[in-house]
Design goal:
- With 254 residues, the protein is an alpha+beta fold.
- The chain has one domain.
- The chain is built from 8 helices and 12 strands.
- The protein has a 5-stranded antiparallel beta sheet, with helices on one face. It has a 3-stranded antiparallel beta sheet with strand order 1-2-5. A two-stranded antiparallel sheet has the order 3-4.
- It is globular and about 50 Å long.
- The structure holds zinc ion.
- The site of zinc ion has 8 residues, from strand 5 and helix 3.
Length: 254
Amino acid sequence: MSKGIKIGKCKLCLETKELNFEHIPPRSAFNKDTKYYILDRTEYYQKAKEYTFENLKPKSRKEQGGIGQFSFCFDCNGFLGSNYVRTYKKFAQIAMNIILSNNNNAKAFEFDISDINLLKFLKQITAIFIASNKHSFIESYPELLEFVKNEKSTKLSERFRFYMYLNNEGQNRSGHIHFTNLFGTVCEFTYRPFGFVLSIDNPKRIMQLSEITNFKHYEKIKMVDKLPIILNKYPTYYPFPLDYRTEKELNGRP
Ligand SMILES: [Zn+2]
């Protein structure tokens, strides 16, 4: 379903143009017919338990046709589509198959990713974080913009660290920037089968997640035959970043 067009400032080329409705994540990665509600963030945080477990229904209308925003112009949308989106889709399909073909109680999965272009994948994740945040985000971190716009660039400073996990249980997470006491500045985006965390200016590694910052060095490591990765699978019931408590834990049952 088309959501029409809108005039605005593109978050990639920064020109004011007709913007395309950007599916976040890509439409081809299980985001074609997604039905969802748009919730006020404060309201959702305050009533996380009621919304998640007590059947509280949002007052807003149900949206459909895939989650996304008017973030990029048609040219930039086309650039992402021809450079990065297919890689993201391929990895998403592999991960979804692995989750679905295994016992639902499995908590970690190891698999081979040597045939995924990890640099492109990392650039697509970066584009997702840019698309999900306000313009002030790229104004604060213009380096992220350069990393996405130049498909060959492997340059990204150490202040940006990326992590990922698998997910098929709980709610989506928006990718919005959060300033937390425990983890510093983080953005977390969750949409099955993946969850991604971008950690900014935090020298401490986030231990419960698999770090994928080194995907930017893919050009140097791509010659290997096998490239194993281990990803944990976490539920995301509440909208708080890095909160992976299970349904049982949240409801106070042992
Ligand atoms: Zn643009």
